[in-house]
Design goal:
Elements (H helix, E strand, L loop, with lengths): L7 E7 L4 E7 L4 E9 L7 E6 L2 E6 L5 H12 L15 E6 L10 E2 L2 H10 L7 H14 L5 E5 L9 H4 L5 H7 L8 H15 L7 E6 L5 E6 L2 E5 L20 H11 L3 H10 L2 H6 L5 H9 L3 H25 L4 E5 H6 L1 H8 L21 E2 L8 E4 L4 H14 L2
Parallel strand pairs: 1-6, 6-8, 9-12, 12-14
Antiparallel strand pairs: 1-2, 2-3, 3-4, 4-5, 7-8, 9-10, 10-11, 13-14
Helix pairs in contact: 1-3, 10-11, 11-13
EC number: 2.7.2.1
Protein name: Acetate kinase
GO molecular function: acetate kinase activity; ATP binding; magnesium ion binding
Length: 404
């Protein structure tokens, strides 16, 4: 970092055909600019760049992630729409990496050894880690002297005890193949745990928190004394409650039965469970909860069933995680559905009174801001806490780079 100046961190989140980014001034955590590159590899790829209250869209062929990174840097330094004069002003890059396996219990500076470990972890997250790695390599190629930091979705869950992360399979599959519960959305769960303690004016070490990260992908985490002790996702992000297009927990014998009966390949079965199931598969309408709400209101019984199943499963898992901690002090709702789904939160909370959590319907009429939504006499508080994974990545990046 240049002496006498603030640190500017570029946060990068690469998907298989997308790249999300934020440029953050870590002196005051101001988001200087942010954007999204979509449809990478396609001729109608698009960059949407936002700064302040302004927006610029660029549509052009973007053959790969390296070109996407270059396009992002070009627009960030553009004389008309950019927010910095040159990419030399970028002090560090923080990357979201989905899977860190057991190797990484915390964010880390990216080195050649770290890259080898990330390649190894790709076997655990074949849909997510390879694009993350491509994004890292693209940034290294264009900005070879800028430090890069990896922030892992799985690292927050590395504090789980063995009794919570082990599966009832022969032990050698854990020893030799790494088969265990890893958990995901860790950066979001960590942010919300920090934020709810701040909002409540308490130390997170004194709280038993159940955070409900609810969206197209959903997971719950039990956070006790500031550390994750259990979570609903597992070896992959397929486990837990049913989600947008994902089945969640099912009897594993169902997989064998369907493959034997219909002759599905492993790839076909994986596609069914990850892309054709969940509320999409039950409703036949959509994986988007807004569409389901509209369809259910119009009398679509399968859409209503999908919603009922989702709400029931979240409520049931809250009970299980409360049991794991011997009680719960606060239940938080975050991510797309958790922050904006007024009716979804109401349906989930209906039946949590035995935990001392009583919803205030008037307070619950809120979207996207830190809000207490429980009654004054609730012994277990209910809160909406908008997540901010990008600022957690930026903070970790700043801390690690500053400590070098």
């Amino acid at each position: 970092m240049k002496e006498g100046t603030f640190m500017i961190v570029l946060v990068v989140n690469c998907g298989s055909s997308s790249l999300k980014y934020q440029l953050v001034n870590m002196d005051n955590e101001e988001v200087m600019a942010k954007g999204l590159v979509e449809k990478i590899t396609l001729p109608d790829a698009q960059l949407t760049h936002k700064w302040g209250d302004q927006k610029k869209e660029v549509v052009q062929p973007i053959p790969d992630h390296k070109v996407a990174v270059k396009l992002v840097l070009d627009i960030l330094t553009d004389p008309e729409v950019g927010v910095i004069k040159s990419m030399d002003e970028i002090d560090a890059v923080g990357h979201r990496v989905v899977h860190g396996g057991e190797e990484f219990a915390a964010s880390t500076l990216i080195t050649d050894e770290v890259m080898k470990a990330l390649e190894k972890c790709s076997a655990f997250a074949p849909l997510h880690n390879p694009p993350n790695i491509v994004g890292i390599k693209a940034c290294e190629a264009i900005m070879p002297n800028v430090p890069q930091v990896a922030v892992f979705d799985t690292s927050f869950h590395q504090t789980m005890p063995a009794k919570a992360y082990m599966y009832g399979l022969p032990y050698e599959y854990y020893e030799n193949d790494g088969i265990r519960r890893y958990g995901f959305h860790g950066t979001s769960h960590r942010y919300v745990a920090d934020r709810i303690a701040e909002v409540m004016g308490k130390k997170k070490e004194d709280l038993r928190i159940i955070n409900c990260h609810l969206g197209n992908g959903s997971s719950l985490a039990a956070i006790q004394n500031g550390k994750c002790v259990d979570t609903t996702m597992g070896f992959t992000p397929l486990a837990g409650m049913l989600m947008g297009p994902r089945c969640g927990d099912i009897d594993p014998a169902i997989v064998v039965t369907l493959m034997d009966k219909h002759g599905f390949t492993t790839k076909e079965m994986d596609t069914i469970m990850n892309k054709k199931s969940g509320v999409l598969g039950i409703s036949g309408v959509s994986s988007d909860f807004r569409d389901l709400g509209e369809a259910a209101a119009a009398g679509n019984k399968r859409a209503q069933l999908a919603l009922d199943m989702f709400h029931y499963q979240v409520r049931k898992l809250i009970g299980a995680l409360a049991a794991a901690m011997g009680g719960v002090d606060v239940i938080t709702f975050t991510a797309g559905v958790g922050e904006n789904g007024i009716e979804d939160r109401a349906a989930i909370c209906n039946g949590l009174e035995y935990l001392g959590a009583v919803l205030d319907e008037e307070r619950n009429n809120v979207r996207g801001k830190d809000t207490c939504i429980s009654t004054d006499d609730s012994t277990c508080a209910l809160y909406v806490i908008p997540t901010n994974e990008e600022i957690m990545i930026a903070r970790d990046t700043k801390d690690i780079v500053s400590a070098r």
